[in-house]
Amino acid sequence: MCNFPGPVGGKPATFSHDDVLTLFHECGHGLHHLLTKVEDLAVSGIHGVEWDAVELPSQFMENFCWEWDVLQGMTAHVDTGERLPRALYDKMIAAKNYQSGMQTVRQLEFSMFDLRLHSELDAAAGPVPVERVMSLLDEVRREVAVLFPPPWHRFPHSFSHIFAGGYAAGYYSYKWAEVLSADAFEAFEEAGAGKGSLLDAQTGARFWREILAVGGSRPAIESFKAFRGREPRVDALLRHNGMVNA
Ligand SMILES: [Zn+2]
After folding, report:
1. Residue 26: active-site member
2. How many domains does the chain have?
3. Rounded to an integer, what distance in angstroms lies between the CA atom of residue 53 and that of residue 60?
4. Cβ-contact 97, 237 below 8 angstroms
5. Distance 83 CA to ligand 1 centre (A)
6. How far is the CA of 56 from the centre of ligand 1 (A)?
C-alpha cells in the first residue's frame, strides 16, 4: 500500500526514505504484472510464481534506493533544493547495516526451526510434546544462534507467521528472496562497473525478458539462471549488508 503523506502548508509532499523504499518495492510488483508477456492469467505477472521468489522483482527495486548516484538524482531539500549530503548518506548505510549479522542469524534460526518443525514433527500421529518443540529449537540455536534467550522463554508460542500467517514451512522465503534479489542486482553492478552507471539497458532488457516477462510460466529458479547465467549465490547479499567488504 502506497499510503503516503500529502502536501501540507503550501509545501510539496515530502517522502521519507522508507516511503521511497516502499514505492520502489511496490513498483517492482507492478512491473512484474505490467511487463508480462504471458497470455494465461494463472501464470502471468506474479501469478503462479513460487512463494519464495515472488518478492524478487520488488526487493530488487529497493536496491536502487540505497545507491548514491540514484539518490543524488531523486533527492532535494524541501526548502533549499540541496541534494542528499554524502555524510547523511553514509549514516543511512551505517544504520541499515547495524547488527545485520545478528539480524541474519535470527532469521536463519526462525527459518530452520520452521522447516524442521514441519518436516520432523508429525502432528497427525498425535500431540507433539512441548518439550520436543523446545528441544528442536535448542538444536537449531546451537547451530546458528549467537545470543541464547533464557530457558523459560517460549518463542514458538508467538511465532504467528507459521501458524496464522500462511508462512508454514515458508518463513525462509523472506531471506531467500533477499538472496535472489541481491544477486540479480549484482548483475547491474557488474554491467555498470566500467561506465559508472547502474542503469544498463542490456541487463535491464534481460531482466525483463527472463524474469518479469515470463511470470510463473516456468520454475523461478530457471528464470533466475536464465538471467544470471548461474545458480544463485549469497555473496552479493552479504556485501550489501556490510558483512563482507564492498
Ligand atoms: Zn512485496
Report:
1. yes
2. 2
3. 11
4. no
5. 28
6. 9
| Calpha distance 141→147 (Å, rounded) | 9
CA 173–ligand 1 middle distance (angstroms): 12
Grid coordinates given for 148? 541464547
The residue with greater pLDDT, 34 or 78, is 34
199 with 92, same domain? yes
Neighbours of ion ligand 1 (CB under 5 A): 55, 58
Ligand 1 mean position to 142 CA, how many Å? 32
Give the C-alpha separation, 197 to 48, whole Å. Answer: 33
Confidence of residue 194 (pLDDT cuts 50, 70, 90): confident
Rounded to whole angstroms, the Cα distance separating 216 from 45 reads 7
**At which residue does the C-alpha cell 514458538 appear?**
156
Let me know if residue 161 belongs to a domain.
Answer: yes
pLDDT in tens, 99-150: 999 999 999 999 999 999 999 988 888 888 889 999 999 999 999 999 999 9
> Letter for the amino acid at 71?
L
Q: Do both 93 and 193 map to the same domain? A: yes
Catalytic residue among 26, 39, 131, 210: 26
**What is the span of the domain harbouring residue 182?**
17-98+174-240
